[in-house]
Write a structure and sequence with these properties.
The mean pLDDT is about 85. This protein has a 6-stranded mixed β-sheet, with helices on both faces. The two termini are about 45 Å apart. The chain has 3 domains: about 80 residues, Orthogonal Bundle (Arc Repressor Mutant, subunit A), CATH 1.10.10.10; about 100 residues, Periplasmic binding protein-like II (D-Maltodextrin-Binding Protein, domain 2, 3-Layer(aba) Sandwich), CATH 3.40.190.10; about 100 residues, D-Maltodextrin-Binding Protein, domain 2 (3-Layer(aba) Sandwich). The chain contains 12 helices and 13 strands. By secondary structure, the protein is an alpha/beta fold.
Amino acid sequence: MSDIGFDLKLLEVFVAIVESGGMTAAAQRLGMTQSSVSQGLANLEQSLRVQLMDRSHRPPLLTPLGRQFYDQSAQLLARARQVSLEFRRKEQTPLKHVRIALVDSLATSVGRELLDVVKLRTAQWSLTTGQSHAHAEALLSRKVDIIISDDAIASHPELYRRRLIREPFVLVMPKGEGSALPVSLQQLSTRSDFIRYSNGTVIGRSIEKQLNAWNINPPQRMQLDNSFAILSMVKAGAGWAITTPLCLLQAGLLSGEVDCMPMQEGQFFRELTLVAQASELGSLPEQLASDTISILKTRYLPILQGSAPWLASGITLGE
């Protein structure tokens, strides 16, 4: 061990423990035994003469100094991987297999066009959809290479990220009931049921956070995991919801089957961001980000402008 106090392998073990949520998961991620991972952490702490993790908790928690060391370790490892890739690649070769995960609303609205550009950029690819928090975990554990998500994983500044779209949240009501507006969300909560996104979803937590900021607390009655189920319930007259234009398009309800309108209390927005491991995929993340923005501009915005022009004006593409 040098006088630096650690080597990159020990840093990799420590970062894996933090990101995987424990020593067993870190061992699986690194292909090591749990005892080797535990010993690696102990060696690192001994070399630094600092306690990085509090083992009295299960799983272990970062100490304040451990949090500072983790942030810098993650950046140092990202830079080390970049240097390694730059000097091992004597020539640029096409990427063999790129794994992409994206939010359901984008997959449904422009998924076919997005697949076409992915095929142009890579020799082999795989694509999955699902909930955003799972995508973030998959990217950090390197189970996928690129995500398009409403979780930009801001706590990891070493990642590449580019915003693709910023869209407003809107109020959605059964067809014909919007004519009774203007009405506040507080009033609406007392006369009709609020159909929520599950609190396990990023979009659901964003909506709840904003409602709390407005001091609006509709009764907890219905929580559903996806836009199609929520908006189908609204269409059937079961209650009202808060969602975004892309989610409306996903459910096929931009054709006037529900009433859609702004909220009196004010505006708030959802952002979808492309996030990838920095410098590991060459120019591919930037190319896919630009491609996706172009697709949204030529495919999505014309649909929105034709069916709900007042919504189109609230959309921002790119940064």
